[in-house]
Amino acid sequence: MLAWFKRKALAATEYAEDVEAEIDASTARSWGWLKILLIAIVIFIPCWYLIGGLVYQRINDDVDFRQDAALAEPRQSRAVATAAALIERETARWSPNEQFWSPAITLDNMPNYQLGIVEAVSRFAIEMVDQLGRQRGSSASDKDLEAAAGYLRYDGTIWIMQDWKPTASAEAQYTRAVEAFEKYNLRLAAGDAIYDKRADNLIALLNRIGADMGSASAALDQRTLESNAGYFDFGADEILYNVKGKLYAYYLILRDVGTDYSDVIAGKQLTPIWDRMLSNFKRAAGMNPLIVSNGAQDGAVMPSHLSALGFYLLRARVQLREVTDTLAK
Predict the structure, then answer these.
(1) How far, in Å, CA of 245 to CA of 287, rounded?
(2) pLDDT digits over 17-42, tens only?
(3) Which of 190, 187, 168 lies closest to 179 in space, CA to CA?
């Protein structure tokens, strides 16, 4: 009997040892998979956000961009067509409202650039409502232009959820603005809308754009006063690209406003001044430093890209004022 108990005890001990060994092996395998998972996460996250952000980023400053469809119908506004096409192009890859899971969350230049574009087009839309799209400013405002201006005032950082409630996204609202612009242009071609191409209307548009450029110039100037950290000013690029986006949009719009108002400009013999003004807008829009530096204005190692952009901005603004002064005579 005693031998039987000894055999049973030995078997139980061996079984326990086998179970313990299996548990140890299973634990080792689990830790191994956990280590592999952690290593994968450590590698994947930087690749997703850093490399993914570089792939996602697009600063489209093509100064030859235009809406060729508007060229087929001379009664349409080329400036309105280009404004609509510009918004449509940017909303196809809209970054300011991307969420934490998107690699675009690491970007700051592209979102600020796109917001600057929308701000400029929004200003143009407001002037179309108030002046250019109505008869001598006294007739009723155009319903499609009002809709476009309203949609463009929407906050560009809003996603499809706000305060945990469903809402319209920025790109959805901007797409509606594009549709409203296009409806206006179709009605304009059919003779059912107004595009009042008078010198005083052009003056009003240029004055508003000039005022907005003054605000942009002040923002650049304020940043240069606050910091001369050169390449280590990590907020300077946000301001530069926001202003660059505005000037790029204004360049395209004014280029095509020049076509829309060609008779007025030629009649006032403004073509050389207009072209010089556009040239400075174009140079500002084309600025694209590899790394934005906000150094001293006379710095050699760390230049001041904000001051360089501000120089072209002020040159364009001076010539814009020269245009309005000549138009007023």
Answers:
(1) 10
(2) 554 555 555 565 666 666 776 776 67
(3) 187
* Count of beta carbons in the 10 Å neighbourhood of residue 242: 23
Residue 49: closest CA among 90, 102, 123, 117: 102
pLDDT at 306 over 70: yes
Buried b (16+ CB within 10 A) or exposed e, 268-296: bebeebbeebbebbbbbbebeeeebbbbe
User: In whole numbers, what is the pLDDT of the chain averaged over residues?
Assistant: 84
pLDDT by residue (tens digit) across 41-68?
Answer: 677 677 666 776 677 788 899 999 987 6
**pTM of the predicted model as reported, rounded to 2 decimal places:** 0.86
* Residues 252/117, Cβ–Cβ less than 8 Å: no
Residues shown for the chain: 329
The b/e string for 208-227 (b: 16+ C-beta within 10 A; e otherwise) is bbbebbeebbebbeebbeeb
Angle at 236 between CA 151 and CA 321, to 5 degrees: 65
Cα separation of 92 and 99, whole Å? 16
User: What digits encode the pLDDT tens for the residues 78-133?
Assistant: 999 999 999 999 999 999 998 888 877 888 899 999 999 999 999 999 999 988 88
Tokens of 203: 């003056």
Q: Which residue has the higher pLDDT, 118 or 166?
A: 118
Q: What angle do CA 165, 144, 98 make, to 5 degrees?
A: 35
Helices 109-127 & 236-260 angle (0-180, nearest 10):
30
Question: Residue 228, class by beta-carbon neighbours within 10 Å (0-12 exposed, 13-18 middle, 19+ buried)?
Answer: middle
Q: Classify each residue of 99-119 as buried b or exposed e, where b means 16 or more C-beta atoms within 10 Å of its C-beta.
A: eeebbbbebbbbbbbbbbbbb
Task: Show Cβ contacts of residue 246 under 8 Å, excluding neighbours closer than 6 positions.
Answer: 116, 117, 119, 120, 212, 213, 216
**Greatest Cα pair distance in the chain:** 126
Q: Report the candidate in 179, 184, 59, 182 with the shortest Cα–Cα distance to residue 115.
A: 59
